[in-house]
Amino acid sequence: MSSNDTDLRDEKPQFVLPLVVRMERDAPPARTDALETAARAVMEILTDARSLGDGEWAPAMTDWQDARIRKVVRRARGAEWRRAEALPGITVAGEEAEVRVFPPVPLDGWPKELAKLQVSGTELDDPAAPGPVPEGAVVLWINPGLDMSAGKTMAQTGHGAQLLWWAMTDAERKEWQEAGFPLAVRTAAPGRWAALTASGLPTVRDAGFTEIAPGETVVSEGSDRFAPRLRLPRA
Question: For the residues 12-19, what does the mean pLDDT come to?
């Protein structure tokens, strides 16, 4: 994207897509489960009937996608989570993780129930190393050189899923959606990351507003089943 395109995006009204991860004190989700659930949540709201055509969320979704596709992840538990669930949105469940995604809001126009929630403190761990990528799943590869909070990484994997969706053909989108958006999030090995960033695959380039310097955070790769043309060529 050219600098002129970037300038035009910045001149448009800025919206943000809110995501809230449920983090009960005694039962936080595993990190990878939360990352994958957040990415699927983004896909669910992008394709929801309310986000399309004359749907009630469509104007906000269009305004958001016409500018920078900002996403902010906050955390909630107990009564906070119940208040968040009462607002219009979609809750997506992973193996243990729950993430609720809401229609985009202006940067300074968050509903009070969400504005009160904390952005910090979204630190999560994997009790065990993630297993092999499930057969047929697309992969959102994380830059191994970055140290990002779980919340920041959830936003980045959401961006990655969205960029992959935009790069797919209509037929590829239909097939992926009907399958339930199978995806995996993994941290790339350094050598693989170098190949991924040189491959031309959809790549998230963070503007550097929070936590990290500007740069590449996630590369999105198709699979044999879904978007094989968006897959790193195998040696």
Answer: 89
